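To: structure desk
From: M.T.
Subject: fold request, one chain
Message: Could you run this one when you get a chance? Sequence is below, nothing fancy, just the single chain.
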Amino acid sequence: MRAGSARAGAGCGGAKRGVRAHGARVDNGRRVAEHGSGTILAVALGLVVMICMAAAFTLAQAMAMAHRAASAADLAALAGADAARGLTTGNPCVVASETAARHGALLSACTVGGGGIVEIRTELVRGAAFGTATGRSRAGPPP
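Reply: Done. Structure tokens follow.
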């Protein structure tokens, strides 16, 4: 070994900088505790996963509510078109409103056009966490 190449503290009893001794890092003769850092990282990862799952469930609920509103509008428009063409009895908008109500929706607009064409707009009355789910449909006689 050359003279001057030996480092201070590199002897048998000395601890090098950054060397682990008994589960803790040694820095300039002081013990620096690292206990619990893995737990904090695991908790943080768990929170991130939970937030992502909550966002996914909220998006799934919004999509389901939109589909329910659209289905109620479709069924109400078909029922109103049947009433407008005389296939069933009653006022087309009243029949459409009753059909929408049976599917948990509120009829927000009803327009009966020429030739038995009925345009419907519905809103879901319950279940939407962020805003109101709406649906729109148009039905009439076959071409």
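Reply (cont.): Residues 37 and 104 are 51 Å apart (CA to CA). Let me know if you need anything else for the meeting.
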